[in-house]
Amino acid sequence: MSTSETRFQVDHRPRPAGLAIRTENLSRVFQVRRSRKWPRGRRVVALDGVNLEVAEGELFGLLGPNGAGKTTLIKILSTLLLPTSGRAFVSGIDVARDPFGVKQRINIVSGGESGGYGILSVRESLWMFSQLYGVSNRIALDRIDRMLKLVGLEDDAGTLISKLSTGMRQKMNFVRGFLSDPDVLFLDEPTLGLDVTTARTLRKFVREWMAERPGRTVLLTTHYMAEADELCDRVAIIDRGRILACDTPASLKRQIARQAVLRLEVSSSDGAGLSQADLARLKDQPGVREVAARWRPEAGRTVLTAILEADGAIPGLVGGLSGLGLVVHSLAKEEPTLEDVFVKLVGRTLAEDTPTNNGDHDSRNGTLPGDGPEVGVGGAGDGEAAAGGGAADESAAR
Asked: Residues 6 or more apart from 190 whose CB is under 8 A from it?
């Protein structure tokens, strides 16, 4: 999108220079209603005192397992959900006190989103959203045409949304996120369900789009470690509502560079995977820091990631595997990856939560599970949750 294009009018009140996103002790608690499992109900802490700063012009990654709080954080930053306590600012604007001012500066792309008006065509739906953002008709139509060509939907511009496949709908959602030329863009699993070629094209486009105008900021959540490693200037690892680490991918990997990272493929005579008790026994071996497993049902084998204090712990680990009746098919020492950092911090591999892989992402790097819809106290959705009242379904507050 050309920087010479006229953008829609926004409120340019003075704001702190240099920070696109800032949170101060941000917390969100969900009240789960009573059920057979929880006869008295329960409180679920989705965010627990999150302090985060994202610089203007930064592509920032947020990585974590299922239910870690990634989507809850994005919903608060995009004004879809109120925090229980703490404060959040986007472009220097308090998201709770001035949500309209925030909305003028942001947009969001959500992976797997199924919303839209089925009676409208792809082009009609995108044009409608552009008008809601106040984009002029000429600029909107030009952006729509160029973006549809980018994602390979130019021949489907007249197709009704109700007739789109999941992948085509995700491509349309991606286009929609860029129509308003936002200052801050939230990409929540943007390549989920996309093919290899399209995923590569979109990653390349995101970087080019940011380079066109310094100050454009992207907050990315993704299942895929390779995607985060390739795109992000910095990443934060979040688990159980808390930020465990925040740095550049290279710096995070250097934190465990002095330790030995092994990748092993093992199997048992009965063709079953490793139990939690088996993993606990392996972790008790001298010099073993962490062991995480990913089951490969198609091969009847388990892929182990082991982080050791030094190479000298390798014989003990192999002996422990033999003691469990396991056959070692392969063993390789590798350079640390972001997944290895995650294993060290969280104690399990990302693929343990989401076994499927996608696009051109190397399965060795694992996948991060997606956050399901985290419904607040409103029960029917985030809009009601922000207003309060009612009770949340237990399945929603994960």
From this structure: 109, 111, 170, 174, 177, 202, 206, 220, 222
